[in-house]
Amino acid sequence: MSCFSGDPNFCPECGNVLPLPGLQDTVSCPRCAFSLPVSEFSGQEIRSSVVFNPLEGSSVAVEDEDSELKGAVIDRRCSRCNKEGMVYHTRQMRSADEGQTVFFTCIHCRYQEKEDS
Predict the structure, then answer these.
(1) CB-based contact 93:108 (threshold 8 Å)
(2) CB atoms closer than 10 angstroms to residue 73
(3) Contacts with 79 (C-beta within 8 Å, 6 or more apart), sequence order
(4) Alpha-helical segments (H) within 1-117
(5) Could you list the mean pLDDT of each consecutive 10-residue stretch along the chain, which spans 117 residues?
(6) Looking at domain 73-116, does it have CATH number 2.20.25.10?
(7) Which class for 82: exposed (0-12), middle (13-18), buried (19 or more C-beta within 10 A)?
(8) Measured over all CA atoms, what is the biggest interatomic distance in the chain, rounded to whole angstroms?
(9) Residue numbers belonging to the annotated binding site for Zn(2+)
(10) Are 113 and 81 in contact (CB under 8 A)?
(11) How many CA atoms lie within 13 A of 12 on its CB side?
(12) Rounded distance, CA 31 to CA 18, Å?
C-alpha cells in the first residue's frame, strides 16, 4: 500500500519526483524500487514554467568588496541602528552535538551580533 497518492509526477511509494518517460517500457523511481508502466502516462500533458523574481525586489546584499556583507539580506532589525536588513553566516563553534552559532551583520552600520542556536 502506498503512502503517497494524487499527482502522477510523484512516486506513490516514497514521494520522489518521477523522471519523464523515456525509451523504456517503464518509469522507475530513482530513489526506491517502484516502477510503473509508461502506458499509465498515456494522454497526459506535462507543462512546466520558470518564473524569475524581479531583481529590484530580491534579497541579495549590496555588492561590496567587504566579505562580511556577502549573502542574502534577511528581515532582522539591527539592535544598534534599528534599521531592517542583516546578512548572516553560520559556524560550528561548539561541539558537534550542539547547535551552530549564527553571526548577523547589519548592512547599514555593519554592527555584528551573534546568536547560539
Answers:
(1) no
(2) 17
(3) 111, 113
(4) none
(5) 68 85 85 86 77 69 56 90 92 86 92 90
(6) yes
(7) exposed
(8) 64
(9) 11, 14, 29, 32, 78, 81, 106, 109
(10) no
(11) 9
(12) 9
Query: Cα(87)–Cα(82) distance, rounded to whole angstroms?
Result: 15
Q: Which residues are annotated as a binding site?
A: 11, 14, 29, 32, 78, 81, 106, 109
Whether residue 13 contacts residue 32, with contact meaning beta carbons closer than 8 Å, is answered with yes
Please, which residues bridge with residue 105 across strands? Answer: 87, 112
Residue 88 has phi, psi (to 5 degrees) of -140, 160
Residue 114's pLDDT is what?
A: 92
Beta partners for residue 60, in sequence order: 72
Confirm if 88 and 71 have CB atoms less than 8 A apart.
Answer: yes
Nearest-angstrom CA–CA distance, 69 and 94: 24
3-state secondary structure of 41: helix
Q: Output the pTM of the full model.
A: 0.42
